[in-house]
């Protein structure tokens, strides 16, 4: 049972992307406590303390990094649930995806996404992007307590 | 009409029969009458002459003896011959010797006898006869008798008329019945012909009643009817066929009209399908880009992590391997991005406006971020405006200017890029000339192909998509683009766009 406060919830079906993201966040010293879930269903369980995460008692994350295309429940559905529910509405959500498809971009913003970031192929650029997102939302940005 | 025809034929036949009968009768009766009259005349004159001769003989002695009493008695014998009207005996000197008159009459006698002979006097026949004795004329006999020729002719005419009348009646009665033998078969044919004409029924046949000419006529008539029936049948069949064909043609025309009517719908439908397919293709290309980019990111990312984590253990060769892995992954990422940019060109509808080309070229140069660009690129005078989509046209300029700068970069300070333009009727023409490495005109066809490159990656960076993008955009505007080059002497790229018409410029706010 982990009662430590989670700074970031990473919702990512690709373990490689997840590993690169986690490594970047840790190496740059932005966030040490990141919870990684592999799809939308698990993300919802975590956020609303349901299913396997029913017994967790460590509050809500400061930031959700959400992949767009995932099995079972995709990023847009998770975003929709979060922004409709008062318990999760205030949590900043950054969509991180491989493509800048117009439809996805538009849908994300209409559902109230806080940021939309395209993951670069180049790892240096990728790492830089992840670092900037983490720095901004966890350090620069003031969120309601 | 049938009745009239029948009457006509029967009457004609009857007329022919009766006329023939009449002519035959008249000729026959006339012949009989002529013969009889001639016979009568011959007999009568002969009889009278004989009478006169007899009177002359028996009266000769009376004259010789000058005995009138005897002569008178001789003449009285004529009472037995009632036809004799009067008779007289004259002496040689011409004096009346004795006379006789038919009882009850008192005829006039000639004063003196005339020459011997026979002569007619009205209804009477007069004969003079010499009385000869011993070769000497001693007197003359005068005999006057009835001559009944006219009466006889009258009788004959009456009889002939009666006979003719009776014969004609008989002929009429007989021929009225007998002519049917001839007319009935003909009338039967006529009747059938009448019905065929009136009812258009060619299956009717005339009945054959005899083997004579009418029979032949019936056979011929029936033969003709059969032929007509056959031809009519064929005609009807071909008419029906024709009607069917006309019907089919009409149906085909209806079908064509219907198809034509449906064609527009189908074109709309197909257009919608094409648009849907296009959208699907774009969706596909985006998901491909997503799916291709993720593994590339992982290749690059893990190579990087390997490099970081094993930094102390890697020698220069190993580092080069890792750099190559990462370089290739990034290169492929750029290729995918360029390809996506190229495929996205067909997506947006053109927003055609009058574009200020000088402004666009300067903005494109700034976008290139090449500090030296401003000094290398010379814009020769004002460029004509074009009717184009400014955001797409900007990509044309960016690509062409980037190419010109890239391939002339080796010239260093002497590198030159010149941009010029001119208006040519309805066309605006633009030219970008550089003094760079140029290209071999043999490969000019490959210049604008996707991923086609005329230089190696080691010589010049690039994916080979830029000129393909340029061509696609220019073609979408209805223009054209071409290039002329020479190795180590530079290249000139020229493209044409629709020029801005006078009123179009005025329309612009």
Summarize the structure.
The complex is a heterodimer of chains A (145) and B (509). By secondary structure, chain A is an alpha/beta fold. Chain A is 40% helix and 15% strand.
What would you say the CATH architecture of the domain at 2-172 in chain B is?
2-Layer Sandwich
Which secondary-structure class do the elements of chain A indicate?
alpha/beta
Largest interface: A-B, 18 and 23 residues
Total number of beta strands of chain A: 5
Proportion of residues in helical segments of chain B = 55-70%
Low-confidence stretches of chain B: 504-509
CATH topology of chain A: Rossmann fold
Largest sheet of chain A: 5 strands, parallel
Tell me the name of the CATH homologous superfamily of the domain at 2-172 in chain B. Answer: PAS domain
The CATH class of chain A: Alpha Beta
* CATH fold node name of the domain at 2-172 in chain B: Beta-Lactamase
Give the helices and strands, then pairings.
The complex is a heterodimer of chains A (about 140) and B (about 500).
Chain A: E1 8-11, H1 15-27, E2 34-37, H2 40-47, E3 63-67, H3 75-84, E4 93-97, H4 102-110, E5 115-118, H5 123-140
Parallel strand pairs in A: 1-2, 1-3, 3-4, 4-5
Chain B: H1 2-64, H2 68-76, E1 84-91, E2 96-101, E3 117-121, E4 124-133, E5 136-146, H3 149-199, H4 213-309, H5 316-344, E6 353-355, H6 357-368, H7 373-376, E7 377-379, E8 386-388, H8 390-408, E9 417-424, E10 427-434, H9 466-476, E11 480-486, E12 490-498, H10 502-507
Parallel strand pairs in B: 7-9
Antiparallel strand pairs in B: 1-2, 1-5, 3-4, 4-5, 6-8, 9-10, 10-12, 11-12
Helix pairs in contact in B: 1-2, 1-3, 3-4, 4-5, 6-8, 8-9
Question: What can you tell me about this protein's structure?
Answer:
The complex is a heterodimer of chains A (145) and B (509). Chain A has 145 residues and is of the alpha/beta class. Chain A has one domain (8-138): Response regulator (Rossmann fold, 3-Layer(aba) Sandwich). Chain A contains five helices and five strands. Chain A has helices spanning 15-27, 40-47, 75-84, 102-110, 123-140; strands at 8-11, 34-37, 63-67, 93-97, 115-118. In chain A, helix 1 crosses helix 5 and helix 2 runs parallel beside helix 3. Chain A is globular and about 40 Å long. Chain B is an alpha+beta fold. Among the domains of chain B are: 2-172, 2-Layer Sandwich (Beta-Lactamase); 350-507, Histidine kinase-like ATPase, C-terminal domain (Heat Shock Protein 90). In chain B, helix 3 runs parallel beside helix 4 (213-309) and helix 6 (357-368) packs across helix 8. Chain B is rod-shaped. The model of chain B is unreliable at 504-509 (pLDDT under 50). Classes of the chains: A alpha/beta (145), B alpha+beta (509). The interface between A and B is medium-sized, with 18 and 23 residues.
